[in-house]
Write a structure and sequence with these properties.
The complex is a heterodimer of chains A (about 550) and B (about 625). Chain A is built from 21 helices and 21 strands. With about 550 residues, chain A is an alpha/beta fold. Chain A has a six-stranded mixed beta sheet. A five-stranded parallel beta sheet of chain A has the order 3-2-1-5-6. In chain A, helix 1 packs parallel to helix 11, helix 5 runs antiparallel to helix 8 and helix 8 packs across helix 9. Chain A is globular and about 65 Å long. Chain B is α/β, with parallel strands linked by helices. In chain B, the strands form three sheets. A five-stranded mixed beta sheet of chain B has the order 11-10-14-12-13. In chain B, strands 3-2-4-5 form a four-stranded mixed beta sheet, with helices on one face. A four-stranded parallel beta sheet of chain B has the order 8-7-6-9, sandwiched between helices. In chain B, helix 1 packs across helix 3, helix 1 packs parallel to helix 4 and helix 22 runs antiparallel to helix 23. The termini of chain B are far apart. The chains are: A alpha/beta (about 550), B alpha/beta (about 625). The interface between A and B is medium-sized, with 22 and 13 residues. Strand 3 of chain A pairs antiparallel with strand 1 of chain B, so a sheet runs across the interface.
Chain lengths: ~550, ~625
């Protein structure tokens, strides 16, 4: 979101689902959407059915890649290198969109100079993908009438996550594949309301509606007037920065709503230690997570999808109404009620806060939500932001303004110079294998919400290795081995996945009780987005000698 | 780990599809490049229509379709294993369980029962072993109609690594001849059209003109007998004029629906979507029917030529012949004829130097009656389960591979040769006002000379029977039109076998089946066999047919065994209700006609009225 907000001023995917069905080329980059975003993948399948080409870029040949016309198995963390190589190939073959670049972007010359050295040969050397295949993808993307790039955590769970996103946006700017129907740049969201969380200001640097806390004095004044309190013009901490602050002893009290950092954070032995050392830990959740077990106070909340009123916002920026079907069990309370009550007991009486009253307030403060009354949301089946007034139908795709002239165009979109920066956790003789992590169809994140249900697909956590590595190390399926990184070690059974190549191994983090994968991962994070590098860990696999 | 294919299984599939291109599409070893990219997607999925041929290759060379073999096919064709399994288990001639290397299918359908099929099965049980049991690397199983009813009883042998063989006049000795490891039996290909044996009768034949005299393996001989004159004529007068001749001839489809052929051809020709396809339906599976088989075995070039004409007239660039899996000799001869025609420039990029490009692909079914239904046939060619589609859209708009498609059966198509020879208007003078031309009839059961007969429309049932030596005085019934047709009695011998008379009289000519049940035949046994046939062949897609065919058979068995639920009247009422539901609500013709023979047996023969003694 940081990358998109930097270039376009708004942190959202640019396209609608219906455009996926109407595009000519889908570049799925660092995403195994068929397993991790199965609903979105239905839209991809519609696109394929309608004739779209699918190219999947992923170190693993995933089940998503099984649908692809072309799969590229690049080295983990070489996304910037691949993007820069494609850019150079596009520019040197005069396939870039000169009109769009001149009309709607800035910084092209610097960008061109920065990719000049990225010949196909160098790209092959760094990414591992044959030069002619990189060339083919570059040409397909540049020549496509309509093309979209979709990505997920394969791009963002890196120490240089923002650079990775900027590198993909560069390609869209270079070819004019943004701001028109069927083209765009789209991060896929893992939950029904990740987008909504950011929209509502649950990020450290923005007020609701992506209004900047530091830079936008006018917006700040508007909120101060509405809320009757001064707003400090300073960015807050990202999640990772909060843990650093805990480490320094600056942060001593945490109020955790609907998160499970004790299981989900990288290098989690350290994370658990930090949480244990807090003066106060408050957890508000619907389930007894590992973090909740450590809490001083637990506030049982209602389930957002069935026990609460309100709205959610999905990946295509569509705000939709959610309706309450059941009363929450026992003493569980609605999140809004809990927060308002907490405020009241801390001495700030907000009166009676309801989902509707909170929403009406948002509409007066966030211009992009202004036109979305509950009534209109119901009538139109949801509305895509921005929707500035009640006559506005909502916005199918973002940034068509870039193609306009004069004042209507707004700020031009800047190219970003991005430097290839390999994973922090380097490979050496001691830790020669690249571990990457991901998700499976049948489980969700740390398994808190999915562990209670059976699935015919689910298999226990395992270290997945290529057939070649298994043969080389003499590993059998099901054999327990020890996996060590520079930070910790775990034991897990072996599973052989033909989608992996020699040197690449894979684990999920769905079953922390069985195998605590995040004992291994590195907490190197992107300074700009705060995302940890879950996707690139250096490990070693050792056989466990049978006990006599 | 998933099961992987043996070397022999790989070789069988690779012989059809060629060597795999990468480790992702079947190569045993993966290369450095395979670790870095793979191709697939649309180009891979578009090979889906090779699924059925690939399964045939495994079945023929290995003798069954193992999990490893199936996985390998799936890898090669980018088909999900579950879907491929669904296809493999749809067809009776494929086995996903290991079984003896030789399997002899013994026809126990209605015509073969009249010729002692049950006795033969009893003898096989006694002398060889129980049905399905391995007897020294071979076994026998019961089969629905094998399409050689005029020479009943019949056996079909499926043998690993050797061609299938269909043999008539079967006995235990026939079984042993097929099952013996050094067996050298081959299909006979006898001329079973008695009119061709007599020079006088022969002179009046049109569709059977060449049968029995032309060498089915010689293109030169076919041309010496007037072959390819019709195609020359069509190319000379052009596509539109060719369709006009067919329209003027008032030719109606011989597959059962009696749709005007010229109207169908014109509908395909005028579709804007491209490409167009033309399919010859040679999946002749209606019990009692063998007419198309005789034509394909003894005059195969006529099928190739008439399909080429249909392709030319409708603007198609590719033709398919879909032949039922149980016709090994016809398959072999058509393959040969297509290859010969290709070599002589009668198929290919420039047919007869006219600039018209057309080629024919032969596709073999694998034992599924339903695939004779045109949209089920398309699905089968496309590598899917042979389940009928909803109509509309009709095939002329969206048929094979979703493109405009013409489809006619063999008999309909070869009429076109006659139409172009004498002209559409002259052809329309043959037969009656609404049923022009001649018609083929398949006579079997209690007649002196069973076989294939060609008769000008307008002839009565008695006249056709007389050609075959007449029906016995004390015969019990005649099954007209096949299992999907109905029973008539000696009182009906003077009905005229035309489209208009059958419509008015409430009987059906169907696929031209005339099966005579003599004085010592067992009609109840025949009705039960028909009910079993439909229960077995229902594809299971729609509820009225899937459930109805089972309920119908159960009710009949209760009536026969006098173990009615309620009264006999209750059971007969139930049969009537099942009949109505299947007829009104089934997706395709199979379900719509599955009660037809039973209905006539109840109404006309009163078979189930009195309690069985």
């Amino acid at each position: 979101m940081v990358g998109l907000a930097t270039v376009f001023g708004a942190g959202g995917g640019t396209s609608s689902y219906e455009e996926v069905a109407g595009t000519d080329l889908i570049l799925l980059w660092g995403s195994n959407a068929r397993e991790a975003h199965p609903i979105f993948f239905h839209h991809v399948l519609k696109g394929i059915h309608n004739g779209a080409e699918l190219i999947v870029i992923d170190p693993r040949r995933t089940v998503s890649a099984e649908w692809a016309d072309l799969w590229l198995g690049l080295d983990v963390g070489s996304d910037v290198a691949l993007s820069n190589t494609m850019a150079r190939e596009i520019i040197f073959n005069d396939l870039h969109h000169r009109h769009f670049i001149e009309h709607a972007t800035t910084g092209f010359e610097e960008y061109r100079a920065s990719v000049e050295d990225w010949t196909l040969e160098r790209g092959e050397a760094v990414t591992g993908v044959p030069a002619e295949i990189i060339r083919e993808v570059a040409h397909s993307y540049a020549k496509a009438e309509r093309a979209m790039i979709c990505w997920t955590l394969g791009i963002t769970e890196h120490h240089n996550a923002v650079d990775n996103v900027l590198a993909l946006i560069n390609l869209a700017l270079l070819t004019g594949h943004v701001g028109v129907y069927g083209s765009g740049v789209n991060p896929l969201r893992g939950q029904n309301n990740v987008q909504g969380g950011g929209d509502m200001g649950a990020i450290p640097n923005k007020l609701p509606g992506f209004q900047d806390i530091e830079k936008d004095a006018e917006a700040r004044a508007k909120f101060e007037a509405a809320w009757g309190v001064p707003i400090t013009p300073r960015y807050g901490w990202t999640l990772t920065q909060m843990f650093e602050a805990m480490d320094r002893g600056e942060l001593t009290c945490a109020y955790v709503i609907g998160e499970n950092p004790a299981s989900s954070e990288a290098d989690n032995k350290h994370t658990v230690h930090l949480l244990e050392n807090l003066d106060t830990l408050i957890v508000q959740d619907i389930l007894m997570t590992r973090t909740a077990e450590m809490a001083d106070v637990i506030l049982p909340a209602s389930a957002a999808w069935a026990e609460s009123e309100g709205t959610v916002t999905n990946s295509e920026r569509r705000v939709q109404r959610v309706r309450k079907a059941l009363d929450p069990p026992g003493d569980a309370r609605d999140d809004i009620w809990i927060i308002a009550e907490l405020a009241r007991r801390l001495g700030a009486d907000w009166g009676e806060v309801t989902p509707a009253s909170a929403w009406e307030e948002l509409r007066t403060l966030s211009p992009m939500h202004a036109g979305m009354s509950y009534q209109r949301l119901e009538e139109l089946g949801g509305i895509q932001w921005p929707c500035p007034d009640e006559d506005h139908p909502g916005t199918l795709f973002l940034h068509s303004r870039l193609w306009e002239s004069g004042g209507a165009q707004g700020e031009k979109a800047p190219f970003s110079v991005v430097i290839d920066d390999p994973p922090v956790d380097g490979l050496d003789d001691e830790y020669p294998l690249r571990l990457t992590t991901g998700r499976r169809l049948d489980s969700y994140n740390t398994g808190v919400q999915t562990g209670g249900y059976t699935s015919p697909l689910r298999r226990p956590e395992a270290i997945e290795v290529s057939p070649e590595d298994a043969a080389r190390m003499g590993l059998q399926v099901g054999e327990r081995v020890r996996i060590s990184s520079r930070r910790g070690e775990v034991e897990a059974p072996v599973y052989i996945d033909e989608g992996l190549r020699p040197g690449l191994v894979f684990m999920t983090m769905h079953f922390p009780e069985q195998v605590d994968t995040n004992n291994l991962t590195i907490d190197a994070t992107d300074p700009k987005s705060g995302t940890a590098e879950f996707k690139a860990t250096a490990v070693r696999i050792d056989k466990i000698e049978a006990k006599v | 780990m998933q099961a992987s294919a043996s070397d022999a299984e790989r070789a069988a599939v690779d012989a059809l599809l060629g060597e795999p291109q990468s480790g992702w599409t079947g190569s045993a070893e993966r290369s450095a490049a395979d670790n870095r990219f793979s191709r697939g997607g649309r180009s891979a999925r578009e090979q889906r229509d090779q699924l059925l041929p690939a399964l045939h290759a495994l079945q023929k060379d290995i003798g069954w379709i193992s999990e490893g073999g199936l996985n390998y096919v799936c890898e090669r064709l980018s088909v999900p294993p579950a879907e491929a399994y669904g296809v493999a288990t749809f067809y009776a001639m494929f086995s996903v369980k290991e079984r003896p290397k030789t399997v002899v299918h013994v026809c126990d359908d209605i015509a073969c029962r009249l010729a002692g099929a049950e006795t033969l099965c009893a003898q096989l049980s006694e002398e060889v072993g129980p049905e399905g049991a391995d007897a020294g690397g071979a076994t026998w199983v019961r089969s629905p109609c094998l399409g050689m009813c005029e020479q009943a009883p019949v056996m079909l042998g499926q043998r690993v690594g050797r061609p299938d063989v269909a043999l008539a006049g079967a006995s235990v000795a026939t079984y042993r001849a097929i099952a013996s490891p050094d067996s050298n039996v081959v299909c006979a290909g006898a001329d079973t059209a008695p009119q061709t044996w007599d020079p006088v009768q022969r002179a009046g034949l049109r569709l059977l003109r060449r049968v029995g005299t032309v060498d089915p393996l010689s293109l030169d001989d076919y041309r010496a007998h007037g072959g390819y004159e019709a195609l020359s004529k069509a190319l000379e007068i052009g596509a539109e004029a060719t369709i006009r001749e067919v329209t003027d001839s008032k030719l109606m489809g011989r597959g059962g629906a009696a749709f005007p052929t010229g109207v169908k051809w014109n509908a395909v020709a005028t579709q804007e979507a491209r490409p167009h396809y033309f399919v010859c339906n040679a999946d002749e599976s209606e019990p009692g029917t063998f007419k198309d088989r005789v034509i394909m075995e003894l005059d195969p070039f006529s099928v190739v030529e008439s399909l080429t004409i249909a392709g030319f007239a409708t603007g198609s660039e590719r033709g398919y012949i879909y032949i039922r899996g149980e016709y090994p000799l016809a398959t072999e001869r058509l393959e040969h004829a297509i290859a010969e025609a290709r070599r002589a420039g009668l198929l290919g990029a420039d047919v007869m130097g006219s600039g018209f490009g057309f080629d024919i692909e032969l596709r073999r079914g694998a034992g599924a009656y339903i695939c004779g239904e045109e949209t089920a046939l398309f699905n089968s060619i496309e590598g899917k389960r042979g389940e009928p589609r909803n109509k509309p859209p009709f095939p002329v708009e969206r048929g094979l591979f979703g493109k405009p498609t013409g489809i006619n059966n063999v008999e309909t198509l070869i009429n076109v040769l006659e139409i172009l020879k004498i002209g559409g208007a002259a052809y329309a003078q043959i037969g009656t006002e609404d049923s022009t031309g001649t018609r083929l009839f398949c006579l079997s059961g209690a007649v002196s000379r069973p076989g294939l007969y060609e008769v000008e429309f307008g002839a009565t049932l008695r006249e056709v029977l007389d050609l075959a030596g007449g029906a016995p005085q004390d015969m019990k019934a005649i099954l007209l039109g096949g299992a999907a047709g109905g029973f008539v009695t000696a009182d009906d011998l003077d009905v005229r076998l035309t489209f208009e008379d059958s419509r008015a009289g409430g009987y059906t000519i169907g696929s031209g089946v005339i099966m005579v049940f003599g004085p010592d035949s067992d009609l109840i046994d025949a009705v039960l066999r028909i009910a079993r046939f439909f229960r077995d062949e229902s594809c299971g897609q729609c509820v009225p047919c899937r459930v109805g065919t089972v309920r119908q058979e159960e009710a009949l068995h209760r009536l026969v065994a006098s173990r009615e639920i309620g009264s006999r009247e209750d059971e007969l009422r139930l049969l009537g209700e099942i009949d109505r539901v299947m007829t009104d609500a089934s997706i395709c013709g199979l379900g719509q006609t599955a009660a037809s023979a039973v209905r006539s047996a109840v109404a006309k023969l009163a078979l189930f009225e009195a309690a069985k003694a």
